[in-house]
């Protein structure tokens, strides 16, 4: 049976793991991009931009690069005129859907406090 010291040690040992996860996911728009790709499977840049109107082109570009560099998404280029680029979740990114679902459940319960006041 674990005592309180074991629980504290276990909780504090998760901090480096969470920090590492945050560095992989990146900036504030990453969760929304991952959600869009989770729902739609594949999207072009313009489709992502339309579905995320609050995100600037530069922020979206930076977010996509970070997610690609960290193995969360796949960028596929098709030799068309003009060039077509599609983004989709990698296996690593698709595995993140459990986190996105947990965020959705938490958000339904706590996300908009004005909906939960008596």
Could you list some keywords that capture this structure?
single chain, three-stranded antiparallel beta sheet, 60% helix, alpha+beta, globular, 118 residues, 3 strands
What string, H for helix and E for strand, traces the elements in order?
HHHEHHEEHH
**Strands across the major sheet, in which order?**
1-3-2
Helix content: 55-70%
Radius of gyration: 18 Å
Q: Report how far the terminal alpha carbons are from each other.
A: 40 Å
Q: What multimeric state do the chains show?
A: single chain
What coarse outline follows from CA principal-axis ratios?
A: globular
**How many H/I helices?**
7
Largest sheet: 3 strands, antiparallel
Which runs of at least 5 residues are low in confidence (pLDDT < 50)?
none
How would you sum up this structure, described in words?
The protein is an alpha+beta fold. Helix content is 60%, strand content 13%. It contains 7 helices and 3 strands. The protein has helices at 4-13, 15-25, 30-40, 45-51, 57-69, 91-95, 97-110; strands at 42-44, 73-78, 84-89. A 3-stranded antiparallel β-sheet has the order 1-3-2. The protein is globular and about 55 Å long. The model has no long low-confidence stretch (mean pLDDT 87).
